Amino acid sequence: MRTRTVIILSVLGIAGALATAAWAHYRWTFPYGRSHSCILAVMLALESYAKEHDGHYPGGETSAEASLSLLHRSGDLDPGTLRGMTIPEGVTRSVLEGGGLLSPESCGWHYVDGLTRADDRELALLWCKEPLGHNGDRSRDGGRQVGFLGGEVRWISGARWTAFLEDQTRRLAQRGPRALAGAPLVTGSIVLPDGMRIDHLDCACTIIESSKGAHFSSSGTYSGCLDLVWYHAPFQEGQVTRTLSFSNLTSDPVTVGFTNGVPDATNVVFRMRPAR
């Protein structure tokens, strides 16, 4: 009986040691707990917000975190995503569902306040305040994911982190009047056959597009929603021609030329006629 007891105690001791080791490994791997507060979801919400607010990303509140929480008020994001990967969800949920705005103590995202769609597309909008991976795991190289204007997400390694921050500081200092105001480079409108003019399109459409320059040419057709506002030149030298179709209507071709990145027209009109 004593031998059996010793064996049982030994097995329990080993199991306990393994459980302790497993827990220690988990805590080291996920210092704030496993999470999927997805940066991709936040970036999609930021782009959607900017499109609906004349090119301006959330801003103007008492802190960057407070501005970011406007995404909750607009119905775009839930507290579980806005908390980031370092703040317990209950803390963030309590603030937002109580009608408040987030602060540095209730949001784990670093958000760059005050940017617009007209800004340099190499400016970053969002990253985790700690060097964590996509699921809240400790990153092996000390890096983290960073969301840039336009929605692109890239991995910036720990070795590059200081240089990245220095580059961001330099780019922020170089913001011009158009970027600060969020002013478009080219705006578009649609004129229907009855003469009615609209500045946005809610239905799906088809766009035939061709681009041409001194050393390139391309063409293609794509479906989706047409963005009638351009904030950046597609290239320095060349021209873009677009033809829009929707609801059995087709536009006359619209062409915009660029010289040194400057368009030859700042307002374009898609004049629709019945498709043949």
Describe this structure in words.
The chain is α+β, with helices and mostly antiparallel strands and 276 residues long. It has two domains: 39-181, no CATH class; 186-274. Helices cover 31% and strands 26% of the residues. The chain has helices at 2-29, 39-52, 64-68, 70-73, 79-82, 89-97, 158-173, 177-181, and strands at residues 109-111, 124-128, 144-148, 153-156, 186-191, 197-198, 205-212, 217-224, 229-230, 238-246, 249-251, 254-259, 262-263, 267-274. Strands 5, 6, 7, 8, 9, 10, 11, 12, 13 and 14 form a ten-stranded mixed sheet that branches. The chain has a four-stranded antiparallel sheet with strand order 1-2-3-4. β12 and β13 form a beta hairpin. The chain is elongated and about 95 Å long. The model has no long low-confidence stretch (mean pLDDT 90).
Detail the topology: elements first, then pairings:
Layout: H1 2-29, H2 39-52, H3 64-68, H4 70-73, H5 79-82, H6 89-97, E1 109-111, E2 124-128, E3 144-148, E4 153-156, H7 158-173, H8 177-181, E5 186-191, E6 197-198, E7 205-212, E8 217-224, E9 229-230, E10 238-246, E11 249-251, E12 254-259, E13 262-263, E14 267-274
Parallel strand pairs: 5-14
Antiparallel strand pairs: 1-2, 2-3, 3-4, 5-6, 5-9, 7-8, 7-10, 10-11, 10-12, 11-14, 12-13
